[in-house]
Design brief:
The protein is α/β, with parallel strands linked by helices and 315 residues long. It has two domains: 6-203, 2-Layer Sandwich (Aconitase, domain 3), CATH 3.30.499; 222-313, no CATH class. It is 43% helix and 11% strand. It has helices spanning 6-23, 46-54, 81-93, 111-114, 119-135, 154-161, 188-197, 222-234, 236-253, 270-279, 299-313; strands at residues 55-56, 69-73, 76-79, 105-108, 138-139, 168-171, 182-185, 199-203, 280-281, 286-287. The strands form three sheets. The chain has a five-stranded parallel β-sheet, with helices on both faces. Helix 9 (236-253) crosses helix 10 and helix 9 packs across helix 11.
Length: 315
């Protein structure tokens, strides 16, 4: 481990936290404090709840919200085969020899190189699998060639391994997403640190709750639903609606008296904010009709917002 590198900070924080907990004493502030964002009396998103359950080394009794920089315990770790060799090199450079005992399960895939089994892959992947198997991971390409590589798609296996709704999952695949807990794609170094320490450092992200209702047709799978959702969100009317909803919700729930429209996630201009406030009644959670609107709401505006609402939520 080289002097002056980030690994020394990571392991130093972990050793200090572990020692303080074991001795029953408070952690002395010797490292720069992490950014902590807290809002008194405000509810938590599902992601914020999961992070607060798994957080390590934060201020005692402080509930953290999106935007906070935190250390968290990691439950499930996945190493991908195209970046796994770099992960193994990172583990060797930090003198790590065995997986952290606080990691519930970890997996090394071989699914990306399975379809291109060239000379380079034939030389590298068995070596990678042997290293990870010895380190303590479940390996997709068994070093003893007991089962075939095509049974080890990383996304499927990580979903099978994650059984806890409160899990934090780190995967060396950029689009690591899970049906349980909260998951993040990560670089080879972050995966290595998660394997060696059982921890990761990251900001708590903002999140949006999406609820699906109805029956899935026989000819569809959930990927079709995700694609359809993205198409609807890119609809210009939907972008306008999302911007208006965000403006109204921020004002209604966080008691903001003014929102800078330049921060809107869509093409929302100040006149649109005013129109939306006239068109939408947050107390009734319903649209005002044109003749009931308290402001200068015209028929064309009613049609615009109602069309956007229908196309985003019912189509």
């Amino acid at each position: 481990m080289k002097a002056g590198g980030s690994y020394a900070i990571v392991f130093g924080k972990k050793l200090q936290t572990f020692a303080a907990k074991t001795l029953g004493v408070d952690v002395v502030q010797v490292f720069a404090p992490a950014k902590e964002v807290s809002h008194a009396g405000q509810g938590l998103t599902a992601v914020e709840k999961i992070f607060n359950k798994n957080v390590v080394g934060s201020s005692e009794g402080v509930t953290l919200y999106a935007g906070s920089d935190v250390r968290v315990n990691v439950n499930i770790v996945g190493s991908q085969d195209t970046t796994g060799l770099m992960t193994s090199q990172e583990l060797e450079s930090m003198a790590a020899t065995v997986i952290s005992p606080i990691v519930d399960a970890a997996y090394q895939s071989g699914c990306h190189t399975a379809s291109v089994w060239d000379k380079k892959a034939q030389a590298n992947i068995p070596r990678l699998m042997k290293f990870m198997h010895k380190f303590g991971l479940i390996t997709g390409r068994d070093p003893k060639e007991v089962y075939p590589p095509l049974t080890d798609v990383i996304h499927k296996v990580l979903n099978d391994l994650a059984v806890d709704e409160w899990s934090i999952i780190i995967g060396g695949d950029s689009h690591t997403r899970m049906s349980k807990g909260v998951a993040f794609g990560a670089d080879s170094g972050t995966v290595a640190l998660a394997l060696a320490t059982g921890e990761a450092s990251m900001p708590i992200p903002e999140s949006v709750k999406v609820t699906f209702k109805g029956d899935l047709k026989d000819h569809m799978d959930f990927r079709d639903v995700v694609h359809a959702t993205q198409i609807q969100m890119l609809n210009p009317h939907c972008l306008l609606l999302v911007g208006g909803l965000r403006h109204q919700l921020c004002h209604h729930h966080r008691h903001r008296h003014h929102r800078d429209v330049t921060t809107s996630p869509g093409p929302l201009h100040h006149p649109h904010c005013l129109l939306f406030q006239h068109a939408w009644d947050p107390k009734k959670h319903a649209w005002n009709s044109c003749h009931q609107s308290p402001g200068p709401l015209h028929h064309s505006h009613c049609l615009l917002f109602q069309h956007a609402w229908n196309s985003c939520h019912y189509s």
